[in-house]
Design a protein that fits this description.
6-stranded parallel beta sheet, glycosyltransferase, transferase, 4-stranded antiparallel beta sheet, alpha/beta, nicotinate-nucleotide diphosphorylase (carboxylating) activity, TIM Barrel, 12 helices, Quinolinate_PRibosylTrfase_C, Aldehyde Oxidoreductase, domain 3
Length: 297
């Protein structure tokens, strides 16, 4: 099976961090002493991973990555009846595998943890995306992710139909309240950014300015950033703020947006709404691995 979207996402730093996360998950489990005692190196198991609820499926490519990290992939046969990113009904088998017993049992919890966690994020993201249907507002994630899982979680957001905000602090220069207050205002903070890049302006990442008031929005517009964020504004204030921003500057709403509030936020006409809870508060989806055959002594 081709995992084109997964492979396209996980290149460079993203793939490096993913592999590190898989390696750490296997390492923190330690050796599977129970399986090593009970199964011989030649024992082969057949198993399946099943969705125990209706769910989007995200993270299937972690199965071969985990087995590869253990050095067992070449000895395994894998089948994926469901496409990565597809929706699976309760009871659907999403992966079948056979291979060395010790390797499959050592990998079981790591594979399930990734698939369950990423599928849960995709599910919650899809609910927010559905709430934006009929608008031009797009859903953004944030950097409110679990340590070490930034890239897998942001990948899961794309499976659910969301859009990634900056993946790290270098993707975009974001002037937040602490930067603005330290510099003495938005004009001064922008001047500090431009000074930092005065000899290499072509290398300067896009700038987003966080605004807490209409006055700050007016100041931000004068600096012509790539995007202006309306931080914790109520819908009436947000509509007024949106009217101050000319075409050519993107707008983003942020701060405490939930499913009940997102439609009103989108009605203000913002280009994006960022929601931290799609990663930091997504419930896991329920998957399990069942052994189909066990070698007999």
């Amino acid at each position: 099976m081709s995992f084109a979207a997964f492979d396209a996402f996980f290149t460079g730093d993203a793939r490096r961090h993913l592999l590190a996360a898989v390696e750490m998950a296997l390492s923190e489990d330690g050796p599977d002493l129970t399986s090593l005692a009970v199964f011989s190196p030649s024992d082969v198991l057949r198993a399946r991973i099943t969705a125990k609820e209706d769910t989007l499926v995200a993270g299937l490519p972690v199965v071969p990555l985990t087995l590869s990290t253990l050095g067992a992939l070449a000895a395994c046969d894998l089948e994926f009846p469901v496409d990565e990113g597809a929706r699976a009904a309760k009871g659907t088998v999403v992966c079948r595998m056979s291979g060395p017993a010790v390797a499959l049992l050592k990998s079981e919890r790591v594979m399930l943890n990734f698939i369950s966690h990423l599928s849960g994020i995709a599910n919650l993201t899809a609910r927010y995306v559905a709430a934006l249907a009929g608008t031009t507002t797009r859903l953004l994630d944030t950097r409110k992710t679990l340590p070490g899982l930034r890239y897998p979680e942001k990948y899961a957001v794309t499976v659910g139909g969301g859009t990634n905000h900056r993946k790290n602090l270098a993707d975009m220069l974001m002037l937040k309240d602490n930067h603005i207050d330290r510099a003495g205002g938005i004009p001064q903070a922008m001047a500090a950014l431009r000074k930092a890049y005065e000899n290499s302006m072509e290398k300067m990442p896009p700038v987003e300015i966080e605004c807490r008031s209409l006055e700050e929005v007016t100041q931000a517009v004068a600096e012509n950033p790539a995007r202006i964020m309306f931080d914790n504004m109520d819908p009436p204030t947000m509509r007024r703020a949106r009217a101050l921003v000319p075409q050519g500057i993107e707008t983003e709403a942020s701060g405490g947006v939930d499913l009940d509030a997102i439609a009103a936020v989108a009605a203000s006409g913002v280009d994006f709404v960022s929601v931290g809870r799609i990663t930091h508060s997504a419930p896991t989806a329920d998957f399990s691995m069942q052994i189909e055959s066990i070698p007999q002594t």
